[in-house]
Every structure is written in C-alpha cells, then in structure tokens.
Write the structure tokens for this entry.
Amino acid sequence: MEDHQPQSVRVERRPVSERESRRANGPDWDRYADEYQATHGAFLGDAGFVWGPEGHTEDELRVLGDVTGLDVLEVGSGAGQCSRWVRTHGGRGIGLDLSHRQLQHSLRLDAETGVAVPSVRATATALPFASGSFDVVFCSFGALQFVSEIDTAVAETARVLRPGGRFAFSVTHPTRWMFPDDPGEPGLTATQSYWDRTPYVEVDDATGVVSYVEHHRTLGDWVRLLAGHRFRLTDLVEPEWPADHDRVWGGWSRTRGVLTPGTAIFVAHLPD
Ligand SMILES: C[S@@+](CC[C@H](N)C(=O)[O-])C[C@H]1O[C@@H](n2cnc3c(N)ncnc32)[C@H](O)[C@@H]1O
C-alpha cells in the first residue's frame, strides 16, 4: 500500500508466509530506499520523529514520554530519523531494519548530522539482543505491517523489554483496509471486508515473484496480540488530519484524512 511500485506488478490478496514476506520486502525496500528518502526525507527530518503521513511529531504527541537515559530500540528504523531524535533527547536510540539500503541512508544521515544511530540489519521476528535490553521499543510505520508472524514479533518485543517497558507503534489504521489505496474520492468507498486479513501482495509481472507484501490486522487482533504477551494497552492514538496539512503520501490525503483515520498508534506496557 506504499507509493512505490517501481516495476510492473499485479496486485493480489492471498496468504503469504513469513519467509516469503521477508524475501519480498527486504529487496523491495532496497530498491525503493533512494526514492523513499528523496521523496519523504525532508518531511521526516534528518533527526525528526514523525508518527505517520499526517505529520504528527513525537514532540507534539509525547507517546514515548521522557526518553532521557533510556535504552530505546526502533524496529523498522529506515534511515534512523526517529532514533536520531531519541539520541538528541538524551536516549540511547538503536536502529534495526531489514533493508541494507535503508541502513546505508541511516549511515549517510549519521555523517551529515553528526548524530550517529548504531543500527543492525535484522528482522522484527528475531531481534538480535539479549532479553531485558531495552526500556522502550517503538516502530513508526516500521516492520509490523510487513511481518507475517506477528505473534513472534510481539513475543520478541516483550522478550527484549525490561519489566515495565513500553511498546509503542504506528501502523496503517485497521479501518483503512476496507478502502482502495487511493488518495482521491475512490478511496472513500468501502470495497472490501474489514475482517478480511488476507495479505496485500504485489507480484512482479516479468518474473512472477512476490515483490511486496503487507499484512492487515483488525483493532481487536492488535488488542488480543498485546494482551497475549502480557502487555497492558494504555493508549490508542488516532491522529486527526491537521488543518494546515495538504501533503499527499500514497493513499493518505486531506480528502480522506478529514473523514476517516489513516494512522493508529498503539501504546502498551509490560508489568513492573
Ligand atoms: C515505511 S518504512 C518506515 C521507516 C521509518 N520509520 C520512517 O518513518 O521512514 C518501513 C521500514 O520497515 C522495514 N522493514 C520491513 N520489514 C521488516 C522486518 N521484517 N524487520 C525489520 N524491518 C522491516 C523496511 O525496510 C523499511 O525501512
């Protein structure tokens, strides 16, 4: 549902395994990274923290709270903009991403800003850290909607967090999956079932290989997932479309944003 589609692809809804999702999404983000950073880099800010296409920042929403002195892991960190913000606010931000090319952009921004984000190439379903390493784990439209084995990803998050740790993540608002991914009027008419979890898949026309995958979970699925790993859901932020915001990002636009939520930010805590 991103605005990438560099090659000629056909869109399908069908089941895809974790292996297939990862094999598609890593190379897809490698191919797309240069264009993604060129298109959205200025909006994100080299050391900025934006929670979604509506443009709400962590400075505004305060979803993570005070990060001073905390160990903070960003999963699906891309070029590390958010983790760089964490570092400039006193936290020990670490990045993790599946895409080599996204991480090269992170290195580039480390050099350009002078704020380095130590980062690792890995997947959300196998976090290469000891148990209890972090006070906060977060994703800003990071890995979670690209992962098939979401139960494993949430279990891994719970494992690397310390008691009382915070998990905060933004994803495409689950209600958006009912609508075509179109920023205009056609994107306002529900055409598919909210309860249809069949993944969105792009298949390369030339090779027949799956080239991109996104997974849908309903609001109830997310609550159940978090509760199943002992998280207590403490907030669900549904940012409203700002009055002065006219940027179109993929299927996100003012036309749709003033009527229906585009982003959901879940905030959850482990017991002390
Ligand atoms: C929409 S970008 C968001 C990146 C960053 N938060 C931002 O706002 O620019 C999604 C990122 O998730 C990464 N990603 C996708 N699947 C992943 C996985 N299984 N594990 C870790 N990262 C993944 C992609 O490589 C990409 O950099």
In short: The helical segments are 18-44, 58-61, 81-88, 100-113, 150-160, 219-228, 254-257. The first strand starts at residue 9 and ends at 13. The radius of gyration is 18 Å.
